[in-house]
Every structure is written in structure tokens, then in C-alpha cells.
């Protein structure tokens, strides 16, 4: 199990998108906290559009009131937030409705924005990782 945790911590230290096979969400949060990363859980369950997802992210990460609600503003606020953290951050997007017709065309752009912010974080000696957690269908 320690090897699994070590691999997860290495993945987190690289930043960017964490693969879906990372395992237990609690293990992910624990590994991130062990690295000194601030963990933000974004509840996207009710967000069925791009603007609703951006609002959910803004609320969970506590973006400033003037958050512009577009991808440029998301990039600006993510980079500012990650620089405010001692080591960096993990953003967990919970129940992102990737197949929702009003959202599916925008998920790639949102994830690309996270990738750009993760690169900026790396360039500034911080980590920004993002994971997507989907509730198991029964």
C-alpha cells in the first residue's frame, strides 16, 4: 500500500490532471495533505453548464467577488490561488457532468485551463493538481 501512496504522491507532485485510476478519494486527499497541498473539493453535481461549473469552482476555491466567470478569469484566479498556498493545491471536481449536452463541449476547455494553470504553478515552484471524482453508479 505504501508503494501505491508513493506513486500517488509522485503524480500529485507533477501536478496537472490526476488519472482516474488514482484510487480512493480519501487516499487522494490524504496524499495531497501529506505533501502540504491545500485540497479544494468542488461539488459540480448541480452544475449542468459551463457557467455553473465555473461558479462552483469559484465558490469552492473562494475566488474574489469580482471573479469574471470566464476561462481567462478562471486561469487568473487559479494561478493567484495556487501562489497563495505554501506548496500548492489539489482541486477535486466532484460529479462533473461531462456528458451533459450544455456542458460537454466545454469540459475540454475547462481542463485545458487547469493544465495551463498547472504549468504556471510549476514555473513558480508550486503544484496545481486536478482530479475528477464521479459518484459510482449502482
Name the CATH class: Alpha Beta
Computed structural class: alpha/beta
Query: CATH fold name, please?
Result: Barnase, Chain D
| Sheet having the most strands | 4 strands, parallel
Q: For the record, give the distance between the C-alpha atoms at the N and C termini, rounded to a whole number.
A: 27 Å
Radius of gyration: 14 Å
Account of the 3D structure:
It is a single chain. The protein has 138 residues and is α/β, with parallel strands linked by helices. The protein has a single domain (2-133), classed as Barnase, Chain D (2-Layer Sandwich). The protein is built from 5 helices and 4 strands. The protein has helices at residues 2-14, 25-34, 50-61, 71-84, 104-123; strands at 16-17, 38-43, 88-94, 127-133. The protein has a 4-stranded parallel β-sheet, with helices on both faces. The longest helix is centred in the C-terminal third of the chain and has 20 residues, at 104-123. The protein is globular. It starts with a helix and ends in a 5-residue tail after the last strand. The model has no long low-confidence stretch (mean pLDDT 90).
